[in-house]
Amino acid sequence: MSGLRWHLGACGERRPSVCMQPACELHTRRCADGSGCVRLTLLCDGVWDCPDGSDEEACGVSAASINAQDSAHRCGFSAQTANGYFRFPTSLHEYPPFSRCVWTIQTVPLSFINITITNLDIESQYDFLSVYKGRQSTEDLVQTFTGTLNSSVSVTIPDWLATITFKADATISGKGFIVLWKTGEVFNILVNGQTGKFIKIIERPAQNWFHKRSRLMDSELRFHSSKFSKH
């Protein structure tokens, strides 16, 4: 027992009292920043599959080359606001090839994040915009987009932390995309004697109450002024 020691590292999943990070699967390796695991076949292939590029380290690539790649094609930020938006690229030009971007959105506990993607124009089947619940990991992937969308699409993240990533290859580019987000509340409500967990989206002057999770029902509750209806 004397040889055992405590180790503190990045946490992939929140726990009530301690953080526990799931082990990487066989034939995979964890990224140095703890953000996820990548297959061994993806190591040293010239493409950054880890957000920090650690899967391409110690591969005979010079530090100068890595730094140049990072400054030219890396992007993203970490936001701690209830509402906001960003455009990529920020200019009207097409996004640069080999882009590797990570945006992290953190709101407040007991809330959810509604993400809307508009003006999506990226190379189909080769460039990907992905939305994750919590930190970036395979098991938390909510949806991936590629190609062109003629209308906006919304994704609801049932958590107060979301990660959005964009990966592009080295050839064809597009005009990019716009991402907007807003925060709502998660609350408990008693319906017909049963307690369920619900998501609340406020829209003025009416208020919509969307059901999130309940073992006995799958419904949408709407409050319009003093009138009440259940769908």
Automatic annotation (TrEMBL):
SUPFAM superfamilies, per this entry?
LDL receptor-like module, Spermadhesin, CUB domain
Instruction: Tell me the superkingdom of the source.
Output: Eukaryota
Keyword match Lyase: no
Q: Which InterPro entries match?
A: CUB_dom (IPR000859), LDL_receptor-like_sf (IPR036055), LDLR_class-A_CS (IPR023415), LDrepeatLR_classA_rpt (IPR002172), Sperma_CUB_dom_sf (IPR035914)
Keyword annotations of the record: Disulfide bond, Repeat
| Covalent S-S links between cysteines | C44-C59
What are the residue boundaries of the CUB domain, all occurrences included?
75-184
Statement: the UniProt record of this protein carries the keyword Repeat: yes
Where, if anywhere, are coiled coils annotated? none
Any one Pfam family here would be: Ldl_recept_a
Q: What is this protein called?
A: Fibropellin-1
Q: Which organism's genome codes for this protein?
A: Elysia marginata
The organism's taxonomy opens as:
Eukaryota, Metazoa, Spiralia, Lophotrochozoa, Mollusca
